[in-house]
């Protein structure tokens, strides 16, 4: 059983509102069929820069003290977030074990996001970014970890 590690990676959005992600049995094969594109990102083919926060310390720090965020931040494991002492509004996507989006919300600073029972990971980005990238309920995301953040064996 593998675990995520702190590091960097690339986020890609597969599928869409019409269920083009290959359905429930699509697995990671659906992502390999769309090697260059990021659905809903207006032609953005290079992927989205991602920071992975898997340790307690990295998750606790999160976006505190930052004035903005380039790309996204993946908190794992996590089922809820807050924006206390944050300086900017964020979009929050709750992901299940298969990296399918369960829910998406925008939180202003000083708010507490309600935990989601089936959520295993939380994806954070600046407000409005998830909509631009096509991240919405039911869509699946694929994470290509950098050298310091291998994925757990259940996600490969």
TrEMBL record:
InterPro entries: DUF192, Saro_0823-like_sf. It comes from the Bacteria. Residues 1-42 are annotated as: Disordered. Residues 16-29 have a biased composition (Gly residues). This is Secreted protein. It comes from Streptomyces iranensis. The lineage of its organism: Bacteria, Bacillati, Actinomycetota, Actinomycetes, Kitasatosporales.
